[in-house]
Task: structure prediction
Amino acid sequence: MKETSAAEKSANIKQDSDINQDIQNVQTVGTPFSDSAKMTMRNVDVFYGDKQAIHDVSLDIGKNEVVAMIGPSGCGKSTFLRCLNRMNDTIESCKITGELKLEDRDIYHPKQDVVPLRARVGMVFQKPNPFPKSIYDNVAYGPKVHGLASRKSELDEIVEHSLKRAGLWGEVKDRLSSPGTGLSGGQQQRLCIARTIAVSPEVILMDEPCSALDPIATARIEELIAELSQNFTIAIVTHSMQQAARVSHRTAYFHMGKLVEVNATQRVFTNPEHALTEAYITGRFG
Result:
């Protein structure tokens, strides 16, 4: 194996230094906007106390589109995702400025109740988090809270339909009274997806939904994302560039709190428009 020369090491250090300097003045390139936007974000800044985590991000997520958000650890992609259904409200030091809309409604309007908002914009987390309830009650919980079913038969129909859409019905239909926590990791994550779609959201946010799963379970979730995108708008944060390439229509690359590039996924991974994106996908940092 050839050793890296001192000159090559010096050049690499200079390139990495240039990358970090470039980010201060970076402007988003590509196609961050959509003609059929389901969610619209403009000039979004996020602060944790005095520290700014997101810098002037503007992005649309189109109806029935899957947008993947990628970038190095700590680049702000999960922080930005959590802004989209106000999950950051739970962090006292967090301050968000800019405009974030679901269709034409300002989701940060003082009169916006976060409970119905999170029914419209659901979230699937990194680690499966089923409730300590039966499989049936995990899925039925949301419809009960939001009054979506007036009769037991209606609730049964919602549970069955949701589990079928999550690709889990055939595996659990004979044990709906069993604890959700007794399922395998991949099944638990699909149960959480069923629980999310049971309240008929318009947007599904996924924060590294496969990071704790084995390859077979990951493949099933990725197939499910493709199926769900026919009816839902999806934004997914992932550390796996291969996963982003497989499941998304557009990919957004974040670096040090800035949105560097948004383009059709194939373009991002074969002919990126920005040098920072190319540096990341070719493994120069991350």
Summary: The longest helix spans residues 6-22.
